[in-house]
Amino acid sequence: APADGSTFDSGQTVVFEVSAVDDVDGDISASVAWVSDLDGPLGSGAVLPVDTLSSGSHRIGARAFDSAGIPGTDFIDILVRPAMTPPQVFIDRPLDGETVIAGELVLFEGEASDAQDGSLEDAMEWSSNRQGMIGTGLSFQTDQLVVGTHVISLRAIDSDGMTGLDQIDLVVEPAPVELLFADGFESPGAR
């Protein structure tokens, strides 16, 4: 044990178990030496708990020698996944503290990735503390932001349910008031 092809998380205790029996010497399980092609010697014994395996694909070997010095060897392959960590999330555009004009088309761009899942493009959600959800994905554009200071959040959730978050402040100023009589119309009595 464990079964060939098993997967574990980094830091998880993996219990290696084996039975080694020789026709002449009988049970020689206590003398089994365990080795990983990534981490080297792991220890010895019929049962060996290990919680220090590095992340990656391991070929684990178990070897015992009988009293005549003849080895018996068996191998299994296991995968140790990196420690579960929250996604890395970054807002690239707009910049923190940027000011835009209400009604102006604003481009939002960001990125989200996870050590276990890779790109989280499909799990990205953009929101404003003033307007709720405003977009999804790597990028989107909107001209529907209301006047005021917004806290813009980009959130991504990985397959383990862990959340990554980045936030910026975005100021939306009112559009300039157009002159009511820009065509030169004169009010009555202005002669």
Summarize the structure.
With 191 residues, the chain is an all-beta fold.
What does this structure look like?
This protein has a 5-stranded mixed beta sheet, with no helix packed on it. It has a 5-stranded mixed beta sheet with strand order 11-18-17-14-15, with no helix packed on it. Strands 10, 12, 13 and 16 form a 4-stranded antiparallel beta sheet that branches. It has strands spanning 7-9, 14-17, 21-22, 26-27, 33-36, 40-44, 47-50, 56-65, 71-81, 88-93, 98-101, 106-114, 118-119, 124-128, 132-136, 139-142, 148-157, 163-173. Strand 12 and strand 13 (118-119) form a beta hairpin. With 191 residues, it is mainly beta.
**Gap from first CA to last CA:** 101 Å
Helicity range = under 10%
Sketch the major β-sheet. 5 strands, mixed
Mean pLDDT: 92
> Uncertain regions: pLDDT < 50 for 5+ in a row?
none
What is the number of strand segments?
18
CA radius of gyration:
31 Å
Estimate what percentage of residues fall within beta strands. Answer: over 45%
Largest beta sheet: what is the strand line-up?
A: 1-9-8-5-6
**What's the SSE pattern?**
EEEEEEEEEEEEEEEEEE
Give the structural class.
mainly beta
Number of helices: 0
Shape: rod-shaped
